[in-house]
Amino acid sequence: MKRRAFRLLRLPLWQLYLPLCLLVLPLGAWAEQDSARQLAPQEVATQALGLQERLDQIKQAVSADNDDTRLGELKAQALELGRNARELLDQLQAEQAPLQTQLDVLGPRPEPDAIQETEQVSSQRDQLERQLAALQARDEQVLAIQNGASALVAQIVELRRGLLKTQLAMNSGSLLGVAFWSPLFSPSSEDARLIGDFFQQLRGVLAQAWSAGLVSALYLALALLVGWYGRGLLDRFLTWCCIHWLPLGRLRRSALTFASSLDTFLVAFIAVTLLCQSLFRHADAGSEIAILADNLTEMTLFSALIAGIGRALLANDRPSWRLPAMDDAVALALKPFPLLLAGIVLLFGILERAHPTVGAGIRYSILLNGLSALSIATVVVLMFLRTNHVRRQLSAAGTAPEARSTLAGLLHMGAGLVAVAVLLALLAGYVQLAHFLAYELIWAAIVLACLYLLSRLCVDAIEAVFAPDNRCGYLLKQSLNLDDRHLAQAASLLSALCRCTLVLLAIVALLNGAFGDTTPLSLLQRFVELLGGDGWGQLEIVPARIFNALLCLLLGIYVLRTAKRWLERDFLPKTSLDTGIRSSVVTLASNLGYVLLILVTLAALGVQWSKLAWIVSALSVGIGFGLQEIVKNFISGLILLTERPVKVGDLVSIAGVEGDIRRINVRATEIQLSDRSTVIVPNSQLISQNVRNVTMSGAQGVVGITLTFPLDIDPEQVRDLLLDAFRRQESILETPAPSVSFSQLAPTGIVLSTTGYVSSPRSVSSTKSILLFEILKDLRAAGINLSSPQRLQIENTSGEAETSL
After folding, report:
1. CB-CB contact of 82 with 150 (8 Å)
2. Cα(484)–Cα(163) distance, rounded to whole angstroms?
3. CA torsion, ordered 358, 360, 363, 367, to nearest 10 deg
4. Which side of the chain, N or C, has fewer Cβ within a 10 Å radius?
5. CA pair distance 106, 117, nearest whole angstrom
6. Which of 55-59, 357-361, 461-465 has the lowest mean pLDDT?
7. Which CATH class for the 19-107+121-168 domain?
8. Residue 409 CA to chain centroid, in angstroms?
9. In 3D, which of 348, 344, 404 has the Cα closest to residue 380?
10. End-to-end CA distance of the chain
11. Confidence (pLDDT) at 541
């Protein structure tokens, strides 16, 4: 003990102080937290008052503003206000928890006839209750602010939608009219003055930035170097990383394509940041030039995304690494179009965003919107004409063009139709509609391209991770003691989950691009409300709901068919389930999916489930008179798919019909006979009648041949001859071995029965025929005759059949 104490004294001071510090620091933090909690009520009151004032200011601004850009900014402020209120609400709830805990420790107030508590405990309870009541009151106040912010966001969304509809429906003059081009040739004096003032301010900022010429020149040189050489260097580095770091396979291609689409974005971000520092670093915050610099950065990044995705998908530098199925000549013909589209979007995007800042008239806005829509539609039409021309040249030269899927063809045709619609809208004078369609086309192309790249990357990455021949897959296999089949199943499930998630995100992105007010949380909330909330409150058949229902129905059918193909071809073949169970699972999942689709479609149509008594009554009458057989067969089909007394591939016999089950549908089951014809049997008969399932337990087929010979033959010689004929037949199983039995001794002769087994009852008929040929040939060769008349008996698992010879 003394030695231990002495060693303890010899320890350095920091080693002795360290445990004390570890004990004291949490206590100090708790003390600081407690003191902060004591100061929280005043701070919360101040913050709540500030939030309420901000909310009132935003409401006032919304009521007095009709500009879409300004409404978007106010919406962002309202969302930020809601987040701040949520944080303050969480703080209040956190402060209420310890007070409630202390009240629970003190317990309820004693009854008058019970033992009275001390005055100190009573005063402490009163103080805690007052503090808790004050916090709850502030809690309700902040919650009201949060609800007000949410309601304000919804109001702004509706205002922006109404403003968008008004703008789209407004006819501002045809593209061929003089009024459309008037701002270029005869601008008003006020517009000329505003534009002149803006350029004067721009020249002043540029002159101030270049007053220190060395710094600005350095920024500009760096921007040019990064923009000119950065992408090439980064692309080489990414290629080297994909080759040396990733396993051999499709993951290299998808990873390099995805990285190539991002390197342009990254290089553009660095270059435009350096350029803005070179030109606009002296601009005042919130000034017109600062807003111009921000718009330049945003539009440059958006345009770089267009150029990067297009260059990555075409992959003209590395044709062997190209992801989409595209001919080299087609990809080469499309090479300039992504960069051209990116340049058009950058130029007109900056001009359109600078217009509200400058304050010029509405005619300039219409001119810019029309020119941008015209340029985008023209480039898209030229792109399609160019690709079709190249494909026709390939076909004329005897080279088959690349095979495209139906979905790719639909997207190609849809994009062409939208581009033509943009040109027609410009000619008709609906400039805002044309502008909306043009940029929605660009946005949809970006979203779908990102969906394609991300889905390919995720699927290839998952397959590489779970591949047994890779290191990661081998470690998973050894660590979790999994089979290759289990790894394949996990890869299929995760791939499907990633694809579904990406598709949902793509839908959200498309809606966000179209309306600018959709987030994943709001989309999920609307979907939940659609299924069980106020969306079912009343049945109103209006054109918008009909369109939504049709769109939901078409998308649902496509999703269900895609999921069915995935189950049939990708996931279920990697399981240990037999063919019958796979078919049952696919059919049951398809039926449930269609039922869900019908419910969702009715929800989109606005059906009110609380007032469907008339539909239920009509169905009851229909079931009572004419639909009872259909309902009975439907229920029987569900029973067949769940209990599985028969399954696809079974050999069954019912009511004189014997054949293989090929498909179990909702109403009836298809049975294929031996002559390849099909019998449709209602599902109710398979449930209510006696069904003989020959292959349910894996039964073997039995071939039995009974022959009658004259009395003067040698039975043992005939027995050996029959056994030899059965043994020579390859389809006859060795176990159980074939046998010959002395069946009967009759006046007409000796009756011998020969029995052999085959692997399946389906082989009985063909094996019987071959054996008869062989036995008759052997009997003639041995000089043995059959007695007359004769009976030939063939036995199998379906019963005995006798044929007289």
Report:
1. yes
2. 58
3. -30
4. N
5. 10
6. 357-361
7. mainly alpha
8. 21
9. 344
10. 111
11. 44
Q: Find, among 613, 548, 516, the residue nearest to 74 by Cα.
A: 516
Report whether 135 contacts 96 (CB < 8 A).
Answer: yes
Give the dihedral sign, CA 345/347/349/350: positive
DSSP conformation letters of 715-756: HHHHHHHHHHHHHH-TTS-SSSPPEEEEEEEETTEEEEEEEE
| Residue pLDDT, tens place only, 233-290 | 888 888 888 888 888 878 888 888 888 888 888 898 898 888 888 888 777 766 777 7
Residue ranges, comma separated, of all CATH 3.30.70.100 domains in the chain are 701-804
| Structure confidence by residue, pLDDT tens digits, 420-459 | 999 998 988 888 888 888 988 998 898 899 889 999 999 8
Rounded to an integer, what distance in angstroms lies between the CA atom of residue 456 and that of residue 324?
10
What number of H helices and E strands is found in the chain?
25, 10
Token code pair at residue 468? 């047994």
In the chain, CATH 1.20.58 sits at: 19-107+121-168
Q: Which residue has the tokens 């028969």?
A: 646
Candidates 227, 261, 350; CA nearest to 300 is: 350
Two tokens, residue 190:
């006020």
For the ranges 70-79, 183-192, 531-540, 747-756, the maximum mean pLDDT occurs at 747-756
- Between helix 431-465 and helix 250-280 the angle, nearest 10°, is 130
CA pair distance 73, 222, nearest whole angstrom: 33
Q: Where are the alpha helices (DSSP H) in 169-249?
A: 178-185, 189-209, 213-225, 231-245
Q: Which residues pair with 661 in a beta bridge?
A: 671
Place of tokens 């629970």: 104
Type of residue at 454: L
**Mean local confidence (pLDDT), 635-664:** 77
Q: Which residue has the higher pLDDT, 87 or 543?
A: 87
Contact 798, 653 (CB under 8 A): yes
C-alpha to C-alpha distance for 586 and 563, rounded to whole angstroms: 9
User: 415: which residues sit within 8 A by CB, 6+ positions away?
Assistant: 380, 384, 441, 445
Handedness of CA 569, 573, 577, 578 (dihedral sign): positive
The Cα–Cα gap between 404 and 406 comes to 7
Tokens representing residue 306 in the block: 């267009």
Fold of 637-693: SH3 type barrels. (2.30.30)
Contacts of 413 (CB under 8 A, 6+ apart): none
Confidence class for position 341, pLDDT limits 50, 70, 90 = very high
CA–CA gap between residue 206 and residue 283 (Å, rounded) = 9
Largest CA distance in the chain: 131
CATH 2.30.30.60 residue ranges of the chain are 637-693
The CATH number of domain 701-804, selected from 3.10.20.80, 3.30.70.100, 3.40.50.1110, 3.40.710.10: 3.30.70.100
Whole-model pTM over 0.85: no
Q: Which of 390, 293, 299, 258 is nearest to 337 (CA)?
A: 390
Query: Could you tell me the pLDDT band of residue 117, with boundaries at 50, 70 and 90?
Result: low
Strand order of the sheet with strand 651-654? 678-682, 668-672, 657-664, 651-654, 692-693
Averaged pLDDT, 353-382? 81
- Provide the b/e sequence for 123-145 (b: ≥16 CB within 10 Å): eebeebeebbeebeebbebbeeb
Is the sign of the CA dihedral 36, 39, 41, 46 positive or negative? negative
Rounded Cα distance, 90 and 84, in Å: 10
737-751 burial, b at 16+ Cβ within 10 Å, e below that, comes to ebebeeeeeeebbbb
DSSP code at position 321: G
